[in-house]
Amino acid sequence: MPIIFVLIDGVGLAPAGPSNPVAAGFVRLRQTLGAPLSAGLRVERSGLYAASIDATLGLPGLPQSGSGHAAIYGGYNAAQAQGRHQPSFPSVAMRAHLQRWNLLLAARQQGARVAWANAYLPGYADAIAQRRLRHTAGTWSALAAGLPLAGIAEVLAGTALTWDIDRRLARRRPDGAALPLLEPHAAGAVLARLARRHDLVAFETYLPDLAAHGRLPLTVAEVLTTVDALLAGVIAALPADTTLVVTSDHGNSEDATTRSHTRNPVPLLALGPAAALFRDVQAIDQLAAALLAALQGGSSPHSTTRLEEPCRC
User: Fold this and answer.
1) Sign, CA torsion 224/226/232/235
2) 88: helix, coil or strand?
3) pTM of the entire structure?
């Protein structure tokens, strides 16, 4: 059963109010759900499931992207194994776990056709080599699964997306200046088309988190509109046999009173024929098992998916 998985960094669920851009935003998604992305989110009907899930992983302190992404892709409590929340990028131990077991690798091992839909500009490899950038847990997972990292050619061919979705930020870089702008709705259609040729399509964007930290020349409201349009584009072109699954790693953009992360729960959205299979997911580290179960055709994730014990080195 094909799956499109979208990880949106930095989107939590909090009570609606003047300081919560997330509850006020996502206008198109709100129309689909019939409810805002706010505290107490719970929508369940045929082909649709939406709820809040835990991102704290049972540890004190503020959840972070390094351990949050590792938990999502690695299917284990990365923060607990590390003894703390890991900022930004996965630790050495988390990378070791992802090398042995991650969602993309496990999907390929069970025979699924997997597409890692994130594209990388030409300067990315040099930045990694010079340690000016580090791979996200998703990128480490793609590499461990033997998937190619798409570049400019794939972006222009319409088979991959830059992390900023519409290319506005990519075009500010010398190595992306030639890229044409892309309507976010059309970007969503790219993911839907990929699902016609793949069993699992995965894409991640960091727009809400970076905007909420004040690290982008864009407001939180602007980037939420972009992400909303991306999801609307996926939904409009979603093949009948495909399920769209969306989550986040931690809260941030839902609280305009701070530039820090929050301990708020994060949304889990599932739209499509496998939506009901995600009802038992209570925390972000349980999502990989449910995704694999959905790919296998709907059997229980607890009986069909064996997750490797986390590396404690």
Assistant:
1) negative
2) coil
3) 0.94
